[in-house]
Amino acid sequence: MASVIENAIRGTVTKGIGVVAEFNRKRMPEQDHPFLTGIHRPMDSEITLEDLSVTGTIPPELDGRYLRIGPNPAKPEAKGYHWFTGDGMVHGIALREGKALWYRNRWIRSKTVEAQTGMKHAPGPRHGGFDTVNTNVLGIAGRTWALVEAGSYPVELSETLDEQTYNPFDDTLAGSFTAHPHLDPKTGEHHAICYEAMDPDAVRHVVLSPDGKVTRELSIKVKHGPSIHDCAITDRYALILDLPVTFLDEVADRRPQLSLSLEPRAPGAGRPAAACRPGGRHRLGRLPANLHLPRRQCVRHARRQGGDGCVRL
Ligand SMILES: [Fe+2]
After folding, report:
1. For 131-175, what is each residue's pLDDT tens digit?
2. What distance, in Å, lies between the first and last C-alpha atoms of the chain?
3. What are phi and psi of 248, to 5 degrees?
4. What would the pLDDT profile of 73-83 be if each residue is shown by its tens digit?
5. 220 with 228: CB under 8 angstroms?
6. Distance from the alpha carbon of residue 194 to the mean position of ligand 1, in angstroms
7. Could you tell me whether strands 88-96 and 99-107 are parallel, antiparallel, or unpaired per DSSP bridges?
8. With contact defined as beta carbons under 8 Å apart, do 269 and 33 qualify?
9. Angle 309-311-312 (CA atoms, 0-180°, nearest 5)?
10. What is the pLDDT of residue 224?
11. How far apart are CA 11 and CA 86, in angstroms?
């Protein structure tokens, strides 16, 4: 675990890197960005359409909203843009009895969006140094949540997407969340592996009860800031996939020999966010899904399992 001094140094260095990166962004040449053009061109306004005309037939069984979310920068700037960090925009279409009742698109009201558009930021607590939420939108406990990983708290959305609130699951979540929680259909719980962008030494196993409250938030020691943004669950276990894809700053400091990128190498796409760490180990951890154990006993590796410890992924 990093010491207080290490964390202080890391925080200072990170701020310095941010200043240098911002300076370098301004020096980059003007060019089109593949994630700001064509089908990725951001929408430049919020619209509401009602009683949409329908081509063909909408099956009447489809009753509810179809929602999606993604990066949609309010003020697109090609220099140094990375689609992981673009302002979030949620889109929705409501269907009922074969009709398309409405379409809406709404920016997630971060403080950055407020600065760029003048639209007031959403209420609620912030966490992790940024409040851009742009990666997933889903229902938990009958409520609608926009999600991101690495820092910000989730954003709760109203039925029409117009009301938004940063909400750490009714103040039961202490740290960051993930964009990829998994529902256990037997228990109604959600399991998630979460990380903080500024803490490369730990991830956390978070469990939500069927009514959407955090019941477990367990720290797990890791090294080198692995890019763990997902997990898997079985009948009995939550599986932690500690693989050697590491956030780039860690890799670049050691050996800039990148063999895997999380971003297509399209011209002008910017540097990748993460890469495979040469010589890195693959580790698989498993946690009992429904037991509360002391922290020191929680991470076990697949290679230590007995004859009946078969886990298939
Ligand atoms: Fe992710």
Report:
1. 999 999 999 999 999 999 988 999 999 999 999 999 999 999 999
2. 30
3. -60, -35
4. 999 888 878 88
5. no
6. 10
7. antiparallel
8. yes
9. 150
10. 74
11. 23
Residue 179 alpha carbon to ligand 1 centre in Å:
6
How many residues make up the chain in this entry?
313
Q: CA geometry: angle at 157 spanning 85 and 81, to 5°?
A: 10
Q: What residue type is assigned to position 38 of the chain?
A: G
Q: Which residue has the tokens 């310095």?
A: 16
**Backbone CA torsion sign across 66, 71, 76, 78:** negative
Kindly state the tokens that stand for 226: 């692995």
Tell me how far apart the alpha carbons of residues 81 and 78 are, in angstroms, rounded to a whole number.
5
178 alpha carbon – ligand 1 mean position (Å) = 7
Q: From the CB of residue 157, how many other CB atoms can be counted at a distance below 10 Å?
A: 25
CA of 5 to the centre of ligand 1 (A): 30
Using CA atoms, how far residue 203 sits from 39, 55, 199, in Å, is 35, 47, 8
How many C-beta atoms surround the C-beta of residue 138 within 10 A?
16
The residues, any chain, with a CB within 8 Å of residue 32's CB and separated by 6 or more, are: 78, 268
Break the chain down into helix, strand, coil percent, rounded to 5: 15, 30, 55
Whole-number Å distance, alpha carbon 148 to ligand 1 midpoint, is 8
Q: How far is the CA of 229 from the centre of ligand 1 (A)?
A: 5
219's tokens:
């720290």
Neighbouring residues of the ion ligand 1, judged by CB less than 5 Å: 179, 229
Distance 20 CA to ligand 1 centre (A): 26
Return the half-sphere exposure (C-beta side, CA atoms, 13 A cut-off) of residue 213. Answer: 5
Dist. CA 180 → ligand 1 center (Å) = 6
How far is ligand 1, taken at its centre, from the CA of residue 192, in Å? 11
26's enclosing H/E stretch is: helix 4-27
Domain ranges of the chain: 1-30, 32-167
Task: Report the predicted TM-score, pTM, of the whole model to 2 decimal places.
Answer: 0.79
